[in-house]
From TrEMBL:
Feature: compositional bias, Low complexity: 682-694, 766-779
Protein name in UniProt: Integrase catalytic domain-containing protein
Disordered as annotated region, ranges: 1-21, 676-786
Transmembrane region(s): none
Record field: compositional bias (Pro residues): 1-17, 712-721
InterPro entries given in the database record: Integrase_cat-core, RNaseH-like_sf, RNaseH_sf
Residue ranges occupied by any Integrase catalytic domain in the UniProt entry: 297-508
Organism: Methylobacterium gregans
A biological process term (GO) from this entry: DNA integration
Gene3D superfamilies, per database record: Ribonuclease H-like superfamily/Ribonuclease H
Gene Ontology molecular function terms on file: nucleic acid binding
Length: 802
């Protein structure tokens, strides 16, 4: 025998009774149902008609596909007890109901009172007396006649104080109660006025088709009923033009155009889900018209953990560089069984695989709360995650995360797209965090534009909270606020709620955790890999230097190559954690077991790199480059290099030593004049006899020169130029002094000023102590030397100025 639907093997078959009853009472006889042909039953959700009894079984025929069904009376009784089988309609001649009978659960108080009134008349006619009165002595026999029933009906109506119904009406109630009362109860006597009336459509086929086309036009996005009604009118007119060749004008006039009000009622009758599906999209319809289902809690902690991210509405500042890091992204891991927040990751780059792995590592390993002394409540969460529920964000469904889940032996099921209510508790946490912590701090950006207008402009969008301070506030909020806050989704009875920390303490004591994965595994999963060489000062990666004594075992290995000796140095594979730049991991290629060397940052960089995120480091580097670029004059550097290149090219064009010397002297002299610019002021010197041999702004700081006969000829100075013939040497420059005219000031400073040189200048050397420049003895004298000596004597050049 084939059952109408599959039955799991773990449960007893619906077609058999209790096994104990069959064994203990093998000789017992079960009663048989009094069924008639064409009785309609609903069995297992399908409509069947009773056909006959065959070999002790009941034969039913499915109305839909004409498939036979054979069951026993006992099986039918068990199906009726479970609500899987019920009589829909019996094959009776009198009192056949009009339309399907309502369910007893649907009856209102008014309908029950109406049925009780009818039963008073039915019972009085069936028994011959009114309930509560003494029975008549003469035997009573029910007869379907007016003289026999009218006195009883009038007596009941007199007691109730109402008009007596007609005896034929009471007979109809009697037939329904006798035939259907033992199956449907009081529901068989309920008035079904909704099945009365004319069922014919007010418009013919043409009007109905036009209304349907108009409704489809109205279901378009942004369409109004007035615009869609035009489709109804044009459809009817098109049908009339098409039928004009077959129908007479009088018949065409009978085809009416439905009114606008009729069309509006048809649009109003459209199902709301269908309306929103076509007018606003399937996502909106699924979001607005859904049923809420409370999901069952897992059996143990860390069995189901859900993760999501949120960009917080606040601007944070870096602790060291005072750079505005921007709005942080927060990734939260929540345990469904206990409601505890088991892990968090705070970053400033877009949600990525690295930030996800950082949060996952924080969720799996125990938390070190020594850096947060303000946190009073413990955070005891750690363990292996069995199922990690993620949404459909791109940074949660990538291949890297799938590979990490396989390596950690962790399932990664996904929620349905655009269904945030499937992780409603985690979504409420982000909202509670924003309203309870973020929006009350200075530097918040606020997610609501209306609130931004009413907020204090002195604290809005002005970053004042440092990253370490906000992290401490976040840890305090999670441990001392959320984890000890009452949650309605927990507890034995959902809705009453429980405290997450208390539930965790109970469940963690009963369910031990497995061993945790090694820390190097997370560095391998999310770390950055590069090939680096080992220099004399260690390994440089991202302007940070890493060095430790264990690197000596690599550079002293015979297989190591040096860039000085071999032309190219050996590159070693290095990895670093993007969340902590304080150390890197170097793979030893000379070790058979693949030894990993942990190399910390040098002392000069350790304070900066320890615990610093890669994104923050990139911001600091970019800001430092901008500062240097702002103080750097690229055009001036290019001009200087151009002049230097011209001097070098001119020197290489004339390889003679004296020619090179003169060319470089001219170049250096021009550069010196460019640095020491002066302004010539006209005026009468204090001592007319005092003159200067050249325009030297530092001449006033030199000592007076002795007689030319007592000293050897001084060497030429690159600062001086020979005066033109017939002109006197210009007067020395005297800096102007406030309140003293230029002609009243001495041309040379006092002796004290001569002995103390200015800042940045070499001390003045007396002429008697100046060294005498002499050519080396090994160098032969030539004509150029004689010309140079004569030029020195004529131009009064000094050797110390060269």
């Amino acid at each position: 025998m084939n059952a109408p639907f599959p039955v799991p093997s773990a449960h007893p078959s619906p077609w058999s009774g209790p096994p104990a009853a069959q064994v203990a009472h093998s000789q017992a006889v079960t009663p048989r149902f009094d069924l008639r042909n064409k009785d309609v039953f609903s069995i297992a959700g399908r409509v069947h008609e009773f056909e006959r009894r065959l070999d002790g079984r009941l034969q039913f025929l499915c109305v839909e596909d004409k498939e036979p069904l054979f069951i026993t009376d006992e099986q039918l009784a068990f199906l009726s007890a479970r609500g899987e089988a019920r009589l829909v309609a019996g094959n009776f001649q009198d009192g056949k109901p009009r339309g399907p009978l309502p369910s007893r659960l649907k009856l209102t108080k008014e309908q029950v009172a109406q049925v009780d009134r009818k039963l008073d008349y039915v019972n009085a006619c069936a028994r011959g007396f009114v309930e509560g009165e003494a029975r008549p002595r003469a035997p009573y026999e029910f007869r379907r006649s007016k003289p026999a029933l009218d006195p009883i009906i009038l007596h009941v109506a007199l007691i109730k104080g109402e008009k007596a119904p007609h005896f034929t009406t009471v007979l109809g109630w009697f037939d329904l109660w006798m035939s259907l009362g033992d199956i449907h109860g009081k529901a068989c006597l309920v008035d079904r006025h909704n099945h009365k009336g004319n069922r014919r459509k007010p418009f013919g086929h043409v009007g109905e088709v036009a209304l349907e086309r108009g409704v489809w036009r109205w279901l378009s996005p942004g369409m109004t009923t007035e615009m869609a009604y035009a489709k109804v009118v044009t459809s009817v007119q098109a049908y009339k033009r098409k039928l004009a060749r077959h129908l007479a004008p009088e018949e065409l006039d009978l085809i009416e155009v439905p009114s606008l009000r009729t069309f509006q009622r048809r649009c109003k009758d459209v199902d709301k889900y269908v309306r929103d599906y076509y007018r606003k999209g399937p996502e909106y319809a699924a979001k607005m018209h859904r049923t809420y289902e409370v999901q069952a809690l897992p059996a143990r902690p860390y069995q189901d953990v859900e993760v999501d991210h949120c960009t917080l509405d606040i601007l944070l500042v870096d602790d060291d560089s005072d750079l505005v890091l921007g709005r942080p992204d927060l990734i939260i891991f929540r345990c469904r069984k206990t409601g505890m927040i088991v892990g968090a990751s705070l970053g400033f780059e877009a949600p990525s695989f690295a930030s996800f792995i950082a949060g996952l590592r924080h969720a799996i390993y125990p938390k070190d709360m020594s850096a947060f002394p303000a946190v009073r409540m413990p955070w005891p969460c750690y363990g292996r995650i069995e199922n990690l529920w993620v949404d459909n964000a791109l940074h949660f469904i990538g291949k890297d995360i799938e590979a990490a889940a396989r390596e950690l032996k962790m399932n990664k099921p996904r929620f349905k797209p655009k269904c945030p209510w499937l992780k409603g508790a985690l979504e409420r946490f982000f909202g509670y965090l924003n309203t309870g912590l973020v929006h009350v701090l200075p530097g918040t950006t606020l997610s609501n534009t209306v609130e931004r207008r009413e907020h204090d402009s002195e604290t809005l969008d002005r970053a004042k909270i440092r990253q370490s301070e906000f992290l401490s506030l976040l840890m305090f909020f999670i441990c001392d606020v959320h984890n000890v806050h009452k949650s309605k989704g927990l507890g034995l009875l959902r809705g009453i709620g429980d405290i997450p920390l208390r539930v965790w303490n109970e469940e963690a004591a009963r369910h031990p955790s497995g061993p945790l994965p090694p820390a190097e595994l997370f560095v391998a999963l999310c770390g950055e890999w590069e090939d680096r060489t080992i220099q004399n000062d260690g390994i440089v990666w991202g302007h940070i230097k890493y060095e430790c004594p264990e690197l000596l075992s690599l550079i002293t290995n015979p297989g190591h190559r040096s860039a000085r000796e071999d032309g190219a140095g050996t590159r070693y594979r290095c990895a670093r954690d993007p969340a902590d730049l304080g150390r890197i991991y170097v793979v030893d290629p000379y070790d058979r077991d693949g030894r990993i060397i942990t190399v910390p940052a040098t002392r000069a960089h350790r304070a900066y790199a320890e615990g610093r995120h890669r994104h923050v480091h990139d911001l600091a580097v970019a800001n430092a480059r901008r500062m240097v670029q702002g103080a750097f004059d690229f055009d001036a550097l290019m001009r200087a290099l151009d002049l230097l290149g011209d001097a070098a090219a001119a020197a290489r064009a004339k390889p003679e030593r004296k020619a090179v010397h003169r060319g470089l002297a001219r170049f250096l002299d021009a550069q010196r004049k460019a640095r020491f610019r002066s302004e010539v002021r006209t005026g009468t010197p204090a001592h007319p006899a005092t003159t200067a041999g050249h325009l030297d702004p530092l001449a006033i700081a030199r000592r007076p020169k002795p007689a030319a006969s007592a000293l050897p000829a001084p060497p030429p100075s690159p600062r001086s130029e020979p005066p033109a013939a017939g002109h006197e040497r210009p007067l020395p420059l005297v800096p102007p002094q406030d309140g003293v005219p230029s002609d009243a000031r001495p041309a040379s400073p006092p002796p004290q000023a001569l002995e103390e040189p200015g800042p940045g200048m070499p001390p003045a050397v007396p002429a008697a102590e100046a060294p005498i420049a002499a050519a080396p003895a090994s160098e032969p004298a030539d004509d150029l030397d004689d010309e140079l000596a004569a030029l020195k004597a004529a131009k009064n050049w000094r050797t110390d100025d060269e």
